[in-house]
Amino acid sequence: xxxxxxxxxxxxxxxxxxxxxxxxxxxxxxxxxxxxxxxxxxxxxxxxxxxxxxxxxxxxxxxxxxxxxxxxxxxxxxxxxxxxxxxxxxxxxxxxxxxxxxxxxxxxxxxxxxxxxxxxxxxxxxxxxxxxxxxxxxxxxxxxxxxxxxxxxxxxxxxxxxxxxxxx
Length: 168
Prior knowledge:
Blueprint lengths: L3 E2 L2 E2 H6 L3 H30 L12 H4 L9 H14 L1 H4 L23 H5 L3 H10 L13 H19 L3
Antiparallel strand pairs: 1-2
């Protein structure tokens, strides 16, 4: 909360920042916090990495059978893109190729959603399950993202695959 001090807010008074500088600094502080959390995750992931982390990650058969209730409408794709960019780009990269800056430091590399062979083996239900459950170093998103958001991300992942493999 920012208290008003004779026309200036408390935050402005303490930092001496306004406008874009303050917004940039707040964004930078948030990004630094996310990086700190990821650094801790990487540290624990390194210790917790087991042989299972290197085995193929297969969703349970009942999860594979679940159908996506969110059609790939422009609205759902845009919402899925926003969630992806807010939460996944760091490791999976801008285009979903598994080449994000955070992913480069991981022993278990992030999935490459532009790989048509990999993505053809995944059902929408299995992608939804994996997003929800996570597997180190990827966190589980089921308590952070709504079901609708996770399904929208699945739609967006399908679009990334299509875009990367479109014939020009």
